[in-house]
Design goal:
Shape of chain B: globular
Number of helices of chain A: 10
Helix content of chain B: over 70%
Distance between the termini of chain A: 31 Å
Structural class of chain A: alpha/beta
Radius of gyration of chain A: 19 Å
Largest sheet of chain A: 6 strands, mixed
Oligomer: heterodimer
Number of helices of chain B: 12
Number of domains of chain B: 1
Distance between the termini of chain B: 31 Å
Helix content of chain A: 25-40%
Strand content of chain B: under 5%
Strand order of the largest sheet of chain B: 1-4
Shape of chain A: globular
Largest interface: A-B, 35 and 22 residues
Largest sheet of chain B: 2 strands, antiparallel
Number of strands of chain B: 4
Radius of gyration of chain B: 19 Å
Strand content of chain A: 15-25%
Order of helices and strands of chain A: EEEHEEHEHHHEHEHEEHHH
Number of strands of chain A: 10
């Protein structure tokens, strides 16, 4: 489905701030796999997602999506097969446009963008049905501007927008990190529901160790721009947060000092 | 203020409202302050004047629009393809257009259109109380048509994407749309409208001067901001109408200032002050109210 081959990325090459963010990363995803990614700050998690989605140009390696080499495709072209939700709830929606208009743009993904009517009656009915899934009452506020929604509501809407046209790959970059715990849990369970219903191939970064084992079918841990650990199957089933931390410290040779990760 | 002055200001306000709609497209929907406006306004005026000299004033409006679209496209390409900051890209286009406009005008700094065919000629003679309403009515018709088309356009799928690009370009790319192309369409449309306004002004005053575009972008911004502050922004249609009313109100303010004895040479100074005041409204309100 997705193949990342010896992917390397260095920021600020040649400057004093040079930083190797990704160091020959290899990763292969099967159809329908839901992979959670954990790791400390600067481990390269977000950089990996941004390289896959085309936000960053990569230095070396190849990215193959659906057996097609997309390494040189610009971000917007790759987006036609990739759905994304960002950490910042403000980044996934246009705040000055209505819920309906935002969904309409998402729903037009992969279709020609021309002088057709932006949103039809039929679209609206469909949007309302989809919004009901969120259970946030947004289906009754479809003509309201997104700027009026809370962060959690916006994030739930972004998730819906990212999946309303079924993507081949869904990338979630700590999409619940900026939300308060209650709504974060809600968005996470919604994520699980959408991903399993549509059998979406998903990469989800999380700072929460527990969630990384609880959600998804496979967990990878990154450190220093490399994948340190790849848990699947039986090994993952038997894994606990404590043992995960222990394993991480052993393999990376570093203390896990990220409170945020431990507490979650 | 006499009725004549009042009507004259409204007439000017209506024509400049077309330019203000263009500025609205770049400044508000694309969130890009585009300074090419000063050049594309004169480009529209120059093209229209030359077409009038050749006896095709109406066709001239269309060609002015297309020429303006071309100018806007250059700014867009400088920004998106060559990664020049939007402000500087606009300035470069504006500067280049100065020479280009002189070329359109065959090297002359101005062209008078006295006794030539203009778009207003066929409608002349709608006189009421000593005022000839032909210019006002024809301009109003053009403005209404363009307002309607712009409104409908902003409700299309492309229009949605255009508005979203100014709001959050990252989201638009994440949803599979090439934002470079969207910016091209937006700036072309914006400068096209500005050029039509330039053309109508040339026709209205029967005169084109290569320096007539100086400060146009500021006047456009003033209209947009005054409109928004005074008439509200609750819906898209309301916003567009607010911009138009803002343009008319701006002309009335200027007319009033001239009436109470401001020398015409101070016009640009006053325009700049109005825009500075209007733009700092949120801060001023917070501090003094």
């Amino acid at each position: 489905m997705l193949r990342v081959e010896s992917l390397s990325k260095t920021f600020g090459k040649g400057s004093t701030n040079e930083k190797l963010a990704l160091n020959e990363v290899n990763l292969s995803l099967q159809e329908g796999e839901f992979v959670t990614i954990i790791g400390g700050n600067g481990a390269g998690k977000s950089t990996l997602l941004n390289c896959i989605s085309g936000v960053y140009e990569i230095d070396e390696g190849r990215i193959i999506l659906d057996s097609k080499d997309v390494t040189s495709d610009p971000e917007y072209k790759r987006s036609r097969n990739i759905g994304r939700v960002f950490q910042d709830p403000l980044k996934g929606t246009a705040h000055d446009m209505t819920i309906e208009e935002n969904l309409a743009i998402a729903f037009a993904k992969g279709k020609s963008v021309g002088l057709q009517s932006g949103v039809t009656k039929k679209d609206t009915t469909l949007f309302k049905e989809r919004l009901e899934l969120l259970d946030l009452g947004l289906e009754n506020r479809i003509k309201q501007k997104v700027g009026l929604l809370s962060g959690g509501q916006r994030q739930a809407l972004t998730l819906l927008m990212a999946t309303i046209i079924k993507p081949r790959l869904l990338l979630l970059d700590e999409h619940t990190a900026a939300l308060d715990p209650t709504i974060a849990r809600k968005v996470l369970s919604l994520t699980r529901k959408l991903v399993s219903e549509e059998k979406l191939c998903t990469l989800m970064i999380t700072h929460n160790m527990k969630a990384s084992l609880e959600y998804g079918t496979r967990t990878i841990m990154m450190h220093g721009g490399k994948i340190m650990m790849d848990l699947q199957g039986e090994e993952r089933k038997d894994m606990t947060v404590d043992r995960l931390i222990e394993q991480f410290e052993k393999r990376s040779g570093a203390e896990l000092d990220n409170d945020r990760m431990l507490l979650g | 203020m006499s009725v004549m002055v009042l009507l004259g200001s409204i007439e000017l306000g209506i024509i400049y409202a077309i330019m203000a709609l263009g500025v609205f497209v770049s400044f508000r929907t694309l969130n890009m302050p585009d300074l090419s406006v000063d050049g594309s306004f004169v480009l529209g005026a120059a093209v229209s004047a030359v077409m009038s000299l050749n006896g095709h004033p109406f066709l001239g409006l269309g060609i002015a629009f297309i020429a303006g679209c071309g100018a806007g496209s250059i700014t867009a390409l400088l920004h998106t393809k060559l990664k020049i900051q939007p402000l500087l890209a606009g300035i470069l286009t504006m500067l280049a257009l100065y020479s280009l406009n002189l070329k359109v005008m065959s090297g002359r700094a101005n062209i008078p259109l006295i006794n030539k065919a203009t778009v207003f000629k066929p409608f002349e003679g709608i006189i009421l109380g000593g005022y000839d309403y032909s210019k006002l009515l024809f301009s109003l018709a053009v403005l209404t048509l363009l307002l309607l088309l712009l409104f409908l356009f902003l409700k299309t799928r492309l229009g949605f994407v255009l508005r979203a690009t100014g709001d959050n370009d990252q989201m638009v790319r994440a949803l599979g749309v090439n934002t470079d192309l969207v910016i091209l369409v937006g700036l072309a449309l914006s400068n096209g409208l500005v050029a039509v306004a330039g053309a109508l002004i040339a026709q209205s005053q029967s005169f084109v001067d290569v320096g007539m575009g100086i400060g146009m972008v500021v006047i456009g911004l003033a209209s947009v901001i005054i409109g928004e502050v005074v008439f509200g922004v609750s819906s898209l249609l309301r916003r567009l109408i607010a911009v138009i009313l803002g343009s008319i109100l701006y002309r009335l303010i200027i007319a009033f200032a001239l009436e109470i004895g401001m020398p015409p040479t101070d016009l640009k100074l006053v325009s700049a002050v109005i825009v500075a005041l209007a733009m700092s409204m949120p801060i001023l309100k917070k501090r003094f109210l």
